[in-house]
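Sample pair:
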Amino acid sequence: MDCMTPERSKEINDQTGRVTSNLSKLSAGKRVQNARKRRFDYSVVLVAVTALSVLAQSDAHNQLPMTPPMGWNSWDAYGLTITEAEFRANAEWMSKHLKPFGWQYAVVDEGWYLQNPGSGGKPVWEFTLDKVGRFTPAPNRFPSAVSGAGFKPLADYVHSLGLRFGIHIMRGIPREAVARNLPIADSSYHASDAADSWDACSWNSDSYGVKSNPAGQAYYDSVAKTYASWGVDFIKVDCISSQPYKASEIRMISAALKRSGRAIALSLSPGPTSLAVADDVRKYAQMWRISGDLWDYWKPAVDHTWIQTLYGQFSTAAAWAPYSGPGHWPDADMLPIGYLGPRPGLGSARQTRFSHDEERTLFTFWSIIRSPLMIGGNLTQNDEWTTSLLTNTEVIAVNQHSTGNRPLITTDDVVIWTARQENEKGQYLAIFNRGDSAAKVALEWNEVGLVLGKEYAAHDLWEHRDLGPATSLKLTVQPHDCALYRVSDGSTPITRVMPHNFQDIPNSDLLPSNGLIHYWSLDQASGSTLAVDSIGGANVTLAGTTVFSSSSEIGSGALSLPPDGTSKCSGVMTPSDMLGQNQLTLSMWYKRACAGCVVETGQELGDDGEEIAIQAWGDGNLYGAIGGNGAETESYAGVPQNDTDWHLATLVFDGAQTGDANRLKLYVDGVQRTLGSFNRPVPASTTTVAQTFYIGATDCGQIHTAGSIDDVRVYNRALSATEVSNLYRATYSGAGEHADHDSMVEHERK
């Protein structure tokens, strides 16, 4: 290694207690080019990350995550340069939009101690240290760190948002501390006693390695104690898990964290971590990287051949499957999705190069292999697609609550993984197409560990729909895309139930509130239908009887009309304040009464025999409807005729939109559906709309099966796609259940 004699720095500032360094370092001008760039001549790159601290107290140990950590890291969007204001903005966004789905760590990546990170090291980097040789946040970038406060004010703020705070560090002791031979806190040692001047990171020469001696342990103890006092919950240590694997420093850091008195998760980086040390790294690490740095490339880029690609990660991850388990997670690196900017760690600001299909594949693969999920993009610039990706509770459940994750089939193009649900009620099946053309996949159930010839029901976790019982699985997967299913015994089909428990709704803070004018919670008791409009106080007639009144007591459960073959006349519900609206959103949870029921086709909904529906009327014309399917499945944005699960139907009308295709939108389970043959775009000449719902037949002379509706909401504005998605996720428990609760009413009225 080419070593240079460090120049003397400025004197210690007695007022702030910091050393401001202008240390010249080896290859300083190449730092930005090489930061986080690990040039390895390997066709398959494995990376190790995250060692877990062992805590001094057993109750503190319980605070450490036993499932794969989920959070956000600043590197992919900001590189070395993030400021406190930018970090706070991303943490606030995560708290508001992602925390309800399990995302909790906000991590400041490399370079937070640099005063001039954008200089490229020319003429020199300017560091910020304290009097005992520890890096501290640069106050010109992190103003709350002034007067020796360190990261404590920022960590306190992150904690106030209900999140956890993390930082990145380089292994070792700052070269500047060694040059000045600064004392090591709470010991008789000095920096030169702990430093190994012949050991420095090949791509970042900020620090020297630390000797495996009492002085080295004392230095790491002092660092861990400082981070604990700041309130740090997560530490990513870099240049430690490969090239070479620094076993002694990993153990010293783990021991220091044990003595810190705080539960601090330890992440080790970069890769590749050798499989030969897998058992060792599991003893000390909570996370360890399984590949080199992953960026937004499907296959190798000519100018960045050292980068791990999404294509390459399939083979890399398979080797690490046996080593994944509670508290110990092989890490496939951050998720370079969304907007990578304004100052990304590699290249120029950009929207991710990944297509939507590739982003879905990325998130699905990270979930089925149970990798930690650390978002790399700028959260404040997230679009609706990216947000929907990160808030799919059914896919997140695969990452957080599955077992036995392993690959089953690998060909040149197709890769298939499986896992069990934590509750043993079903099996997950992830199917990926790595090829550049569509792949036809035909599987007998015994090929994925199930019983040949037996019927199983598959539920699509991305589309939120059930495929129905089948004795085999056949599908076509588009290039670079995937499918993710939950498969259960066909004799016990997956159904959503009504738990009637507000505690089962972890995401109620996602509910859109502005513009809510009606909310109906429905119930059936002793053969009579009870319900209430908790907002507008309007009376509503169903089955020929007024059942809604402002004085009714809020019920729980659902309005249900049995499939008894009798004529059910619901009447059409259109409260007066829903008429003549230029913008309107109506949603309801609904389910069919039985699978495969014979439906006598009527004329009321385009000959579809629809027994439960939301309708959109404009200027006397019926333009669209959503509900449980009748005879013509292509006519509705609904669900298969034999589906008896709960589904959320939502119609959104926006008369202010130009282009008739944008004026009426239909959603099922938070996903926009294409207008069917019956549903017609609302022309620009239609400026107002009234939306209605009914259960049973609107034409009382027809015989129809029936079902249940519940949780009906009316907004006097057009909800955005994100709000519709959030409405579904807020009222869907994520465990195959539609969660009905009355306490949400008070939240929505605020």
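The CA atoms of residues 335 and 375 lie 5 Å apart.
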